[in-house]
Amino acid sequence: MFFFAPKPKSSLQSSVYDHSPPTIFFPRQGSFLGRLRHFVDIIDPSTLLVSEERLQECIKLLDDFKHHRLPPGVSDQQLWEAQKVKQAIIHPDTGEKIFMPFRMSGMTSNEDLPPKRGLFYHNACVNYANRNATKPTPTAKFLQGYVGAVTSAVSIAVGLNVLIQKANKLSPSTRMIIQRLVPFPAVACANICNVGLMRHSELTEGVDVLDGDGNVVGSSKIAAKHAIMETAFTRVVLPMPIFVLPPILMSYLEKMRFLQNHRRLRLPIHSLVCLATFSLSLPLAISLFPQMSQIEASHLEPEIAMATDCRVLTYNKGL
C-alpha cells in the first residue's frame, strides 16, 4: 500500500511492533515515493463513504494488533486497509473524526482554481481541520483566524479580478503576460495567508514535540513555525499543475474535430481535465513533507533540548 514492492505477510507486523508511538500507525515516510503512496490512500474518496460501524471495526482491529490481541485469521491486507481507513478519517492528535467535507479526501476538484469566494471558505476549514491540534484553540481565536483568512483571500481575489479587467485596456502583449502570470502568485499568496491565519494560534501556543517513546517533551513554538511553513509551501505547490496542464491539454483537445463540432462539450471536458490535474497535484504537494515531521532537539528551545536525551524529536506537521 505504501511501497511499490509487494509486502511480505509480516510487513505490517514488523512496521508496527518495531516502532513506538507516535509513528506506530504511520508508515515509513522517509522517501517521497513512500509518502506519495501513503497520501494517495489518505485522499481516496471512497473513505468518505465508510460507515461508523466500519470505522469502529478498523479502530478496534488496529488497537488489538497494537496490544497483541489479534484474533486468528486476520490477514495482512485487512490490517493495511484498517490503517488506511483510520488515517483518512481520524485526526492523529485529537483521536476524533474530521468533519467529512474538510478531510483531505473531501477537497473539491476545483479547490485551487482561479479564485472563487466560496473556495476560500472551504480552504480555511480544511486548513483548520487538518492542523496540529495538540493545543486547544479557543473559539475567539478560531473566529479571528477564520475572518482574517477569508478576508485576505477574498481581497486578493477581488484585486486579481480588477487587475485582469484593467489589463483589457493595455497592449495585447502586456495583457497576455498579466492574464497568464498574475493568477498563480495571487492564489499562492491567498493560500499562504489562509494557512497562516487559520493556524496562527500554534505560533503563540506552540505544538507538542514527542520523544522516541511518544512522550511529550514540551511545547515548541519553533516546531510550530516549521510546521506552518512546510504546510504553506505545499499550498504554493498545489495549484502549479492546475495553472499549467489544463491550458496545454485544452489547446490540443480544442483542435480536435469532435470538440469543434460539439462546442458545448468544452466546459465539461475542461472540468474533467481540471479534476484529473487536481487529483494528481494534491498527493504530490502534500507528499513533499512527512506528516509526522522530525527536528533535532538542539534546534528547539533550550528548555526542550535540556529536557530530553533524544537527539531527534517528532511533531505533527498537519496537512
From TrEMBL:
<keyword id="KW-0813">Transport</keyword>
<dbReference type="Pfam" id="PF03820">
    <property type="entry name" value="SFXNs"/>
</dbReference>
<dbReference type="GO" id="GO:0015075">
    <property type="term" value="F:monoatomic ion transmembrane transporter activity"/>
</dbReference>
<dbReference type="GO" id="GO:0006865">
    <property type="term" value="P:amino acid transport"/>
</dbReference>
<feature type="transmembrane region" description="Helical">
    <location>
        <begin position="143"/>
        <end position="164"/>
    </location>
</feature>
<dbReference type="GO" id="GO:0005743">
    <property type="term" value="C:mitochondrial inner membrane"/>
</dbReference>
<protein>
    <submittedName>
        <fullName>Sideroflexin 5b</fullName>
    </submittedName>
</protein>
<comment type="similarity">
    <text>Belongs to the sideroflexin family.</text>
</comment>
<keyword id="KW-0472">Membrane</keyword>
<feature type="transmembrane region" description="Helical">
    <location>
        <begin position="236"/>
        <end position="253"/>
    </location>
</feature>
<keyword id="KW-0496">Mitochondrion</keyword>
<dbReference type="GO" id="GO:0015137">
    <property type="term" value="F:citrate transmembrane transporter activity"/>
</dbReference>
<keyword id="KW-0029">Amino-acid transport</keyword>
<keyword id="KW-0812">Transmembrane</keyword>
<dbReference type="GO" id="GO:1990542">
    <property type="term" value="P:mitochondrial transmembrane transport"/>
</dbReference>
<dbReference type="InterPro" id="IPR004686">
    <property type="entry name" value="Mtc"/>
</dbReference>
<feature type="transmembrane region" description="Helical">
    <location>
        <begin position="265"/>
        <end position="289"/>
    </location>
</feature>
<keyword id="KW-1133">Transmembrane helix</keyword>
<feature type="transmembrane region" description="Helical">
    <location>
        <begin position="176"/>
        <end position="197"/>
    </location>
</feature>
